[in-house]
Write a structure and sequence with these properties.
3-stranded antiparallel β-sheet; alpha+beta; 19 helices; Beta-lactamase; 508 residues; Serine Threonine Protein Phosphatase 5, Tetratricopeptide repeat; 6-stranded antiparallel β-sheet
Length: 508
Amino acid sequence: MNRIPPRRKSDAFRNTPKMKRILSSSWKIPLITLLALVAIHASVSAQDHAAKIDEFIGLYYDRGRFNGTALVAEGGQVIYKKGWGMANKEWGISNEPDTKFRIASMSKQFTAMLIMQLVQEGRIALDDKLTDYLPEFRRDTGDLVTIHHLLTNTSGLPDYSDAPGFWNELMRHPMSSEFVIDSLSSGDLQFQPGSEYRYNNGGFYLLSLIVQRATGRDFAEVLQEKIFQPLGMNDSGLDRPEVILEKRATGYEQFVDGFENAPYRQIDNLLGTGAIYSTVEDLYLWDRALYTDRLLAPEYKEIMFTPFLQNYAYGLGVKKIPLGDTGDSTAYMGHSGSVAGFNSRIARMVEDEHVIVLLCNISEWTRLSDMTQGITNILYDLPYDVPKKSLAKALYNTFLKEGVNAALAEYHDFRETHADTYDFDEDELNTLGYRLLRTDRIGEAIEIFTLNVKAYPESWNVYDSLGEAYFVNGNRELALENHKKSLELNPQQSKTALAIMLDKSKAK
């Protein structure tokens, strides 16, 4: 099962038989000696955990699942920080702990903190209406949406990032706040505010504008003044493409046959929803500050960290996570982020003051969630899974040498004999199919996508991908059939490339 069992019992020394023996006989040992023994035990455990984490991340790097920087703190103390791979492949510049990465949607927690600081100062109220700060917003919807709704992704507003062509077309050019407000105002509410959860980038963009309206200052300036400067987060800020930024990581897309520069994105179009850059070292400072009252008084932190629908608090996921099969759990707080060329994640186990920060400058095939789970298990001395080899890369190599039929045969053989070695996630075949599609091997791509549909018949995305290949091949009927099946499985999906293609062809 590709699992590595723990080499040592829990580092939570109070539960170990060894430490119980020490504590039970502590009346025989001078206090200073006992404290020294405890310190030695904690130090040995930290070193052991750091060694395991290094080996674990090394496997992810070797198998193309990670390229970036990692930091892990245990009990509030950093036990591991290291860069893996290249920050810039053209110049051969390595990733280091002070390399700056776009953190994408991890930005939301900082926007939420700014809002709560303004609430604490009495300049904003959580039940204030959206239109109190943005009076130009459509009144019949904006009057129903509160600051609380925006912070918890329960506003019911349409999301500007769901607009057709948003990521591949609109994000290539600067967007004015007027354009975004108009985009978010144009559609009716998707549900009654507060009644449902639906992740919404546009809601946090609006919160950024509310910060600006309430303070009369630029969002980036407020961010620096109220969070980054007080915490000494000197390598963090709002990313602006025109600014020359030292030690900025370049973003890459990874394919079965290598890397490409990620497509250009006007990142400040995302403002407080996803335009912040940072480092693992700065994010560690952020983690430590959240245990104090430096940014926010306890009563306001309690409000910010209380989850609403779908375990989402104000800009953070907050929940209890199980610790393996032990029956125990621990309090978790964190967020992930993804934008062209970058993936990020912060995971805080707040009861034990552990934190895991992963910043990655590739946007395909990363498994930051799995990495986080594995590192968490290491910290709690639980068995953990190691990453599997890429199925897509293996099949692609076979395809190049022997053709698509040999690759299909190899897939079935691996499924029978190497299921524990290769990654059979649906993304693997999907990635392979798209690479074939983008290189004009349309018939072969259809065969790969068809295989994925058979393997994952309940996934809406595999039908969407197959439909896109049929459309490119000129078969609009089968493209539409697969699009309908995709919508049947996920009626709330964003506007996909296939949907846009079908709309344009219908208009013609």
